[in-house]
């Protein structure tokens, strides 16, 4: 356990000292939150488009921000691997679980901080726009966003393990675009319907946004909250196991 | 009586049809510094990787303090410290934080108090003369300082065996000499295997030299013994003589 904590502390320090981390994980999602809120003000009420309304948008932006946590997880793992830092640690008494848990813990913390910052910004925007947000819903969303954070971190760990420090960010960029599009962060997938909605429903991303949105609105029904929570938790668990297995096999790859 | 700390018996490693290490036998005694000398691709790094449990041997055995590197991996890992060919440090952490991190990995909190760990870090900083850069982020350090830190990180857990893989590769002459001084201080207190392709490095630092060519150890001994065996003067001439097959 001590080795996991030591490694997690090291990873947290590495990330917290990277200015790009603040720009992508904190500033960029907030900028998108502000821009989309301004867009929302420009949409006529008669259009009936609510995807950019702050109670919907904040949930989507929380998930959007998590895709950047995935990116930084992948970069950290790939860089450690490519600079022989991991090789040194492979020869130490650390076990593969120390490594994977040591990557997950700081990333989850960063993701929670990111969600809180997004919620604070959302509250400010809601106050300016005169929209009411439910405090209990906001608090709930911090917790219900953790399964999707774990899912994205697991994907980051998989990409970082499989790819080098140049190709891992590229792969993550593809997933950031796919995740925000198929997750319905910036468009109303349900209202669109058709093939697009069917594709969205086959991917886990839409359940992430559904879960955070329904949490914020305290709309705890079976379809949007319970089912999404079960799906995301299951996907996160599978991907975490896969990430751990892949990392372990990579650790022993040379043997 | 000298005690064997490292023992390699017919050790080999193959990658597909390519044999990187070809049935080598070697003994390193306690407190001894052995230089594994060879050109690039001779199999030095693969040997170090097998000793540090990073690579599983294809054949033969390797023991560290009596523990087998395959069967007793956990025990072996606690006994060794390694400084890899490429500088393996946490780039955004300061020198002190890098040492503290490695101390946290190697020094079990059930066995060592916080004060013990702190004292250990201070001792390493003093021994390696890292005081002036202790708060500097390691990515801001020069290549020489980074290598010094890398070696300091390898010994923070007070290992019985230190494996230094090409520790001065790519350093300028001043940085190399400074690093030699740091390595010199480790002699006698610990058992060290150092790989290098710099003749003067092996000559200056090692108690014994093992010449490795194409995956085989072709000659082992002190410099004087190697000179006697080959009839050559100086390690470079000895090496060339052996490499060109003059004595084989």
Write structural notes for this entry:
The complex is a heterodimer of chains A (255) and B (248). Chain A is an all-alpha fold. Chain A has one domain (2-254). Chain A is built from twelve helices and no strands. Chain A has helices spanning 2-16, 19-42, 54-82, 85-90, 96-129, 135-144, 146-162, 167-182, 189-192, 194-202, 205-216, 222-251. In chain A, helix 7 packs parallel to helix 12 (222-251). The longest helix of chain A is centred in the middle third of the chain and has 34 residues, at 96-129. Chain A is elongated. The mean pLDDT of chain A is 91. With 248 residues, chain B is an alpha/beta fold. Chain B has one domain (4-93, 159-243): Rossmann fold, CATH 3.40.50.300. In chain B, helix 6 (173-186) links the parallel strand 7 (161-165) and strand 8 (191-196). In chain B, helix 3 runs parallel beside helix 5. The longest helix of chain B has 14 residues, at 114-127. The radius of gyration of chain B is 18 Å and the shape is globular.
């Amino acid at each position: 356990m001590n080795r996991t904590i030591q490694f997690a502390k090291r990873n947290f320090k590495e990330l917290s000292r990277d200015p790009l981390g603040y720009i992508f994980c904190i500033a960029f999602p907030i900028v998108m939150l502000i821009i989309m809120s301004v867009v929302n003000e420009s949409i006529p009420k008669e259009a009936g488009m609510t995807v950019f309304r702050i109670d919907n948008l904040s949930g989507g932006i929380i998930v959007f921000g998590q895709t950047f946590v995935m990116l930084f997880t992948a970069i950290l793992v790939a860089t450690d691997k490519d600079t022989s830092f991991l090789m040194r640690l492979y020869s130490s008494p650390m076990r593969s679980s120390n490594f994977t848990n040591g990557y997950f813990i700081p990333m989850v913390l960063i993701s929670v901080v990111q969600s809180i910052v997004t919620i604070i910004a959302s509250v400010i925007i809601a106050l300016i726009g005169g929209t009411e947000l439910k405090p209990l819903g906001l608090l709930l969303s911090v917790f219900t966003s953790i399964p999707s954070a774990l899912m994205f971190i697991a994907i980051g760990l998989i990409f970082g393990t499989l790819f080098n420090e140049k190709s891992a960010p590229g792969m993550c960029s593809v997933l950031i675009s796919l995740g925000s599009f198929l997750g319905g962060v910036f468009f109303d997938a349900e209202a669109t319907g058709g093939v697009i909605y069917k594709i969205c429903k086959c991917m886990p991303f839409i359940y992430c946004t559904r879960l955070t949105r329904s949490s914020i609105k305290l709309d705890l029904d079976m379809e949007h909250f319970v089912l999404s929570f079960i799906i995301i938790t299951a996907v996160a668990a599978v991907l975490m196991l896969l990430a751990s297995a892949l990392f372990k096999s990579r650790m022993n790859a040379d043997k | 009586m000298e005690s064997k700390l490292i023992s390699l018996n017919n050790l080999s490693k193959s990658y597909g049809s390519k044999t990187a290490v070809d049935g080598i036998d070697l003994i390193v005694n306690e407190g001894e510094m052995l230089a594994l000398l060879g050109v690039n691709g001779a199999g030095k790094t693969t040997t170090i990787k097998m000793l540090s449990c990073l690579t599983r041997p294809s054949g033969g055995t390797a023991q560290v303090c009596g523990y087998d590197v395959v069967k007793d991996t956990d025990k072996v890992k606690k006994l060794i410290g390694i400084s890899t060919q490429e500088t393996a440090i946490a780039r955004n952490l300061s020198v002190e934080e890098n040492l503290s991190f490695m101390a946290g990995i190697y020094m079990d909190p059930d066995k060592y108090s916080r004060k013990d760990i702190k004292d250990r870090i201070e001792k390493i900083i003093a021994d390696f003369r890292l005081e002036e850069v202790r708060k500097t982020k390691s990515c801001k350090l020069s290549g020489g300082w980074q290598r010094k830190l890398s070696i300091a990180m390898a010994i923070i857990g007070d290992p019985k065996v230190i494996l230094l893989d090409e520790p001065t590769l790519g350093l300028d002459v001043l940085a190399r000499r400074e690093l030699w001084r740091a390595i010199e201080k480790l002699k006698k207190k610990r058992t060290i295997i150092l790989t290098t392709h710099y003749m003067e490095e092996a000559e200056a630092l090692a108690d014994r030299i093992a010449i490795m060519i194409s995956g085989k150890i072709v000659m082992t001994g002190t410099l004087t013994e190697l000179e006697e065996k080959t009839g050559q003067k100086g390690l470079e001439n000895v090496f060339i003589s052996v490499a060109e097959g003059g004595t084989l």
